[in-house]
Amino acid sequence: MVQTFFQDSTVLGMAAARLACVPVRLVAFRDLGFWRNPRQEFLMRRAYPLATGFLANSQAVKDRVCTRDRLDPSRVRVIHNGIDSSRFRFVEHPEDEVAIGIVGNLNRRVKRADLFLRAAARVAARYPGVTWHLIGDGELRPQYEALAAELGIAGHTVFTGRLADVPTYLQRLAIGVICSDSEGFSNAILEYMLSGCAVVATAVGGNLEAVHDGKTGLLVPPGDEVALANALSHLVEERAVRLRIARNARAMVEREFGWARCLADHEEYYLSSLLAAGAA
What we know:
Layout: E1 2-5, H1 6-19, E2 25-29, H2 38-47, E3 53-56, H3 59-69, E4 76-78, E5 99-103, H4 113-124, E6 131-135, H5 141-150, E7 157-161, H6 166-170, E8 175-178, H7 187-195, E9 198-202, E10 218-220, H8 225-237, H9 239-256, H10 259-276
Parallel strand pairs: 1-2, 2-3, 3-4, 5-6, 5-8, 6-7, 8-9, 9-10
Helix pairs in contact: 1-2, 4-8, 7-9
């Protein structure tokens, strides 16, 4: 069995696996294809007929790829990302002056660290004691540092760079943000939820499959700094809401997105694929 991820491995891997007569050839989709250009579209669509099956890490990803690439939905299995909850310690944050953070690389503008900073500036005007944390690194970091200074929040903003121990750092945060324009299914959201961070996320892609508005987090429209700032201000003001959302979210992740469940779903799918190919 061969399973590929992302464009280059799919184009090369499916051709090589077919030539090698590998009986089960799987393509895994993990985002909404924000990176695709015409050349990549051309190559990927010629690799798909060489596959025997497809995996998607959210229903949103499945819907997008089936619509865009005209794949038969019955051939695409959804298995959400899993996470080891034992790695993340749940911390309650009843404090008034909270820490708010965003986890993500600073190489891709689609992650919208700029939106996070602009919303932070709006919140900071009313709640100057809040601190802002950007966890990750990348070539865009100098631009975002300059933006924080321009917005007048540099003194309350922490750029951590790349961290070896993200779970420990998350224990500092009362609120975790994902404000991307495009998301397949965010591991960072699951990590926030396990750590006691109340989540605010843009209503895109697989975010809606983990963040149930008002119950396990708050959803805001993509690209809307005012809506993001309002949601963050609400959680800063309403400690009881923040704590309730955080507790609900931890319970949901343990129930629906545990690592054991993810492994079991993959094992079942792999075995059924091998059996269907007469290879097991």
